[in-house]
What does this fold into?
Amino acid sequence: MSREERERLKQEYKEHYRQLLEQKKKLAAYERKARIMKSLEAIDPSPVLHSFQNALQTVREKITLAESRLETWMDHQQGEEAAPPPPDAEEVIRKEQAGQLVRQIRAEMGVIERDLEDTASGMKSEKTVYSQHLSEKKRSGDQDTESDPARTDSDAPKTIGRKKS
It folds into this structure.
């Protein structure tokens, strides 16, 4: 066998193996699709359809009830010019007014809160008793060299467990 013949055979083998690999990939994809289709066929759609039909029936009943109330109200309106609105309309109006009142209160609370924040940011306040004490000393002009009892002097020797002599 010559070198050229070996190269030709080598190329043919490569092509053959590429085709095999491609066929294996196609087979795996087909098997995956088949498993998915089998799973989908195994799913029982009746509970979903049943719940959907129940929900649809409930909506239809509510629509029918609302239409009948509307027709009754319209019949009363035609018979009486000054008939009061149906009770549902009164409730809707009352809820709308309550919602408007809540929105108005929230808006007012927002304005009050912003005013309080502006006032608080304009005030200069001291947060601790010690800082108030220092500010009073500064105002009075006291130059007391008394140190802060909470602070320790970095030059002081540490005497943990020892007595000072």
Observations:
- Residues 54-83 form one domain.
- Residues 26 and 32 are 10 Å apart (CA to CA).
- The chain has a mean pLDDT of 78.
- The radius of gyration is 44 Å.
